[in-house]
Design goal:
Blueprint (H helix, E strand, L loop, with lengths): L9 E9 L5 E5 L2 E5 L7 E9 L3 E11 L25 H18 L23 E8 L5 E6 L6 E3 L11 H14 L13 E8 L6 E7 L7 H11 L3 E8 L11 E7 L2 E6 L2 E6 L8 H15 L6 E5 L7 H5 L4 E6 L2 H13 L5 E5 L2 H4 L9 E4 L8 H10 L3 E6 L2 H13 L3 E9 L9 E8 L2
Parallel strand pairs: 3-5, 10-11, 15-16, 15-18, 16-17, 18-19
Antiparallel strand pairs: 1-2, 1-4, 2-3, 4-5, 6-7, 6-9, 7-8, 9-10, 11-12, 13-14, 19-21, 20-21
Helix pairs in contact: 1-9
């Protein structure tokens, strides 16, 4: 091993790529070095901080030649906060890197060497896009209430008074609610001691309606003066329609507990999405980038070229975000979702929009796919990051729908599942469409259309 290939060595590198975790990638003496906060095209002196036989991690000591893709971050704590990884990267290059993530995953993990990946879809504004933000709460060493994101790889909170990637209409609440919590003297939860009440501050907004929802995640329903404070917040912020408490007493890093109470106003926001109205509560899943989700839905509809007679199964349907708009263009849709609270909202959203050709089922996708009483023409998959359970893949192959639409938020599990679906030689891939749901981060959404071989 080279004397320079050891922890603490100072080496000179050119960054030639960006990894799926956001680090810049360079090579020294033929071995890979991962360097945070760098960009393709940077040349830098790098201190090796962790050295293995085939790769190392490093930290920039001196930027020798900045990349043409390097820009000044919009956020003053971008180099500290773990919420974004790529604010220092030109947005066009972010999109190139994300598309490349999809290509590399399909090639390396799926074995798809000849598949065309479409140019990434993206929205007009790579900032101000988040319709929901949930911030851990803490106290500073001087006792001040803080809210923000953790420094990457740590539990050190970076205090924020505004965030450039969340809808800018939420910024006043982020800055001022902390002061109100301070004045009320409510205790802040400590993970180490498992003591204190307030754990998180969650803010949600209907992008099209402007309605806002404020939720405090607490270990105890008893917050002295919460009813009066909730009314004050509603009077202070005209667009705030509800204040909620969510109870989470568990020793866990899961944000929300199972029970939410509305303290004042209503427990949901209205959102206009793809021509329908959705009611969205604080603790249920809705795509964080409303406009990007609409872009993806439009692409799906255009690609499927629906004729009105199709039967669709929407697996992992959530609150009906895609189920309900699609139902207006087909004969029947069946939505399956594990979370019963999401199914309740989906049913309510169907009623609000007078959509009657939808059936929602609360339960595990792997179970209810096997119990279908109809033969679907199209199955829509939108699983969590871990991808589909193997039983789901096997059931899909047995059901033999004409088309499968697979929406994924993790290219690696997408590639794994596609390999299994195509290995049966029942299906071929006709479209791979990446979409940028999370500008300034390394995350990329991807939609794949599979057609059944005759």
């Amino acid at each position: 091993m080279s004397k320079n290939w050891q922890q603490g060595s100072l080496v000179e590198l050119e960054i030639t790529d960006l990894s799926s975790t956001g680090d810049g990638v360079g090579k020294f003496e033929g071995r890979v070095v991962f360097v945070p906060d760098t960009v393709t095209g940077d040349r830098a002196k790098v201190r090796l901080t962790q050295v293995k036989s085939k790769y190392a991690r490093g930290k920039v000591q001196q930027l020798l030649i900045p990349s043409i893709y390097r820009i000044r971050p919009r956020c003053i704590v971008a180099d500290k906060c773990g919420g974004c990884q790529w604010q220092h990267v030109n947005y066009e290059h972010q999109c190139v890197a994300k598309r490349q993530q999809v290509i590399q995953a399909l090639q390396r993990l799926g074995g798809f060497t000849e598949i065309k990946v479409e140019p990434i879809l993206y929205t007009r504004d790579p900032l101000n896009y988040r319709n929901k933000s949930t911030y851990p709460l803490a106290r500073s060493t001087t006792g001040q209430v803080q809210a923000g994101y953790y420094r990457q790889g740590s539990h050190q909170l970076i205090n924020l008074n505004q965030c450039p990637v969340q809808d800018e209409r939420l910024n006043p609440l982020l800055a001022e609610v902390k002061q109100d919590i301070q004045q009320r003297g409510w205790s802040i939860y400590s993970e180490k001691r498992h003591q204190g009440k307030l754990r998180h501050l969650s803010l949600r907004i209907g992008k099209r309606t402007g309605e806002m929802l404020l939720t405090l995640v607490t270990t105890n329903w008893q917050l002295e003066g919460i009813e009066a404070q909730a009314q004050t917040w509603l009077q202070t912020y005209p667009q705030l329609v509800g204040v909620c408490l969510n109870l989470n007493q568990a020793k866990t890093n899961v944000i929300f507990g199972r029970e939410t109470r509305t303290i004042a106003g209503k427990g949901y926001v209205r959102e206009k999405f793809a021509g329908i109205e959705l009611h969205i509560r604080t603790d249920t899943f809705f795509q964080v980038n409303t406009e990007a989700a609409e872009l993806l839905l439009t692409k799906i509809e255009d690609t499927l070229d629906l004729q009105g007679q199709e039967i669709i199964v929407d697996a992992y349907c959530g609150i009906g975000t895609f189920t309900l708009p699609l139902a207006r263009k087909v004969q029947q849709v069946i939505g399956i979702e594990l979370q019963s609270s999401s199914i309740e909202q989906a049913q309510r959203n169907a009623e609000i929009n007078n959509i009657n050709n939808v059936t929602f089922i609360a339960g595990a996708v792997e179970k209810y796919l096997q119990q279908l009483e109809v033969t679907p023409d199209i199955i829509l998959l939108d699983p969590p990051r871990k991808g589909c359970d193997r039983t789901v893949i096997d059931t899909l192959i047995a059901l033999k729908p004409d088309r499968i639409v697979y929406i994924s938020c993790k290219p690696a599990t997408l590639a794994r599942d596609l390999k299994l679906l195509c290995r049966s030689r029942n299906y071929y891939i006709s479209l791979v469409q990446p979409v940028d749901f999370f500008p300034q981060t390394t995350h990329v959404e991807c939609c794949v259309l599979l057609n059944r071989l005759e």
